[in-house]
Amino acid sequence: xxxxxxxxxxxxxxxxxxxxxxxxxxxxxxxxxxxxxxxxxxxxxxxxxxxxxxxxxxxxxxxxxxxxxxxxxxxxxxxxxxxxxxxxxxxxxxxxxxxxxxxxxxxxxxxxxxxxxxxxxxxxxxxxxxxxxxxxxxxxxxxxxxxxxxxxxxxxxxxxxxxxxxxxxxxxxxxxxxxxxxxxxxxxxxxxxxxxxxxxxxxxxxxxxxxxxxxxxxxxxxxxxxxxxxxxxxxxxxxxxxxxxxxxxxxxxxxxxxxxxxxxxxxxxxxxxxxxxxxxxxxxxxxxxxxxxxxxxxxxxxxxxxxxxxxxxxxxxxxxxxxxxxxxxxxxxxxxxxxxxxxxxxxxxxxxxxxxxxxxxxxxxxxxxxxxxxxxxxxxxxxxxxxxxxxxxxxxxxxxxxxxxxxxxxxxxxxxxxxxxxxxxxxxxxxxxxxxxxxxxxxxxxxxxxxxxxxxxxxxxxxxxxxxxxxxxxxxxxxxxxxxxxxxxxxxxxxxxxxxxxxxxxxxxxxxxxxxxxxxxxxxxxxxxxxxxxxxxxxxxxxxxxxxxxxxxxxxxxxxxxxxxxxxxxxxxxxxxxxxxxxxxxxxxxxxxxxxxxxxxxxxxxxxxxxxxxxxxxxxxxxxxxxxxxxxxxxxxxxxxxxxxxxxxxxxxxxxxxxxxxxxxxxxxxxxxxxxxxxxxxxxxxxxxxxxxxxxxxxxxxxxxxxxxxxxxxxxxxxxxxxxxxxx
Length: 728
Hints:
Low-confidence stretches: 1-32, 40-52
Strand content: 15-25%
Largest sheet: 8 strands, mixed
Helix content: 25-40%
Radius of gyration: 26 Å
Number of helices: 23
Mean pLDDT: 87
Shape: globular
Strand order of the largest sheet: 4-3-13-12-14-15-16-17
């Protein structure tokens, strides 16, 4: 399940190790002596090396066409960028040229499967454990040959090149090879989340009339259950999952389709090559189905030019990309963030090592005891993540720190606060040699949780809290590149620059686009606002996609072409531009509700504040316009709730009963009120009543997307009676 994959697995497992065990390597005398040396370094030498960062103009106002507003472009470019180099106008040509240029470099790495076993827990449940070996690598030259052979094999297998091929699989090297192979024959690829439910899967495949489906072997059984509903699928290519039996493929139930393995398609193409038929920059490369925060998912039509433009823009932002960099790929490739990131990596000729949320760390649930996790073996320098992951990693490590007593805990906070002061520009922060001292003494062990070499993390999908950004800057020694973009702009919009140490912002526009603010009078956001302009965020440029597949009404609602021919996408998000040209996301139009007495409640703003409570795993604020207050559904963090119950002497049966306990509800309510007031929420923005929901919200339940965003309408529908009761 996606919840257990992204939260219970990644988040808890990253936080479960004893990252401060370094203290066992020091005796008391050694610690005291080292501290004394550190104090000398801190107070005798710091000002010698101190250099303050200067203010930098990152975005500048620009005149553009279309609806009047306040528009900004990247300060480094006068004209919008389109391609990383002259000939790379499509994904097909970019991929081919990068593979030829870096033919001998390591490209795609997959861990060797050794064995698997099943263990039984105390409650009788069985869990699969994997023994994985080192990474086995394919070079750029080898990957290009396999992609070409896959393309030829697909045609020889019977795929009609005038129809679409769908990829419904988990992230792996074969996913990317199949994806690039399709472009060798100008085949449009439909990307579908591996966690998507049956109804959405059937809708996506039938709507796009895909004739070939590429999936994991372990998902073949699922196809048997829905086969009668798939009206256009003729061919199935399965990616071999090590350790999974596929004997049932020969059964009569599979006879309605032509079925072959990925290896068989490669072999077929190797023996029967087909001349490539390459796309143009305007050809639709991908129909990417969003996870859908409302209703059925929509297919976004992304051109080759869109993909190349975003990759070009992001490559200018990530600092010092070099041959020693290694990228860990584990997020869904069907998500625009991961696909854009891997496109940037292949454009730069770097290595991609594939991992899994279930095998990422030494303590991950699917890793056999004694086997190293993906980060320990790969030791990546580059990663992507969504805020939900980073927030929980931070909370887990801080929990471990708080459990330590005495000197260890005090030194962590001293070192952290000294480095925090330096990041925020204080003369009294940890600079130069003192910073090295704290890194060796405190943070080196913590950084080993992610392999010890991560220097840059790309974060997107939702706003990242300033606390989490600072934590990873200090404890992981990593620069956080916080991005803002959408599937409709192929993740391209804004991206914070590596030397910008501010928090809460998403940087200036990427070189491939303009960002314009349009006044929204009803919500009270205007481009004339002081001290900074505010309004709805509208994105225009080379990354803006063609629209929604077979949905002209919705396309015309949010896409517009101006008199100069530039295409603009209306995001529905509310932003403000800082004087240096950096964008900050401050609200969302759909999340604003007008209460009975005329006050406006920003649901997203309130939820972001309430999530900082130590008791909250997820929360949805609900406001009925016929009342003058709001309420909330709260998914609590079980360990925190059970800990408080134990300390308070509360007896309970199961967790559901605990969530219904009046004292527990009051304690959570007090915590929510405190964090809300700390965030300066108005009284009417603070939930007056709450309901604790025992079961977590997962993508499989249909209550959150694969990127863990709330599906507000689905949650409202499921808890309709509960919400009505909260208003009685």
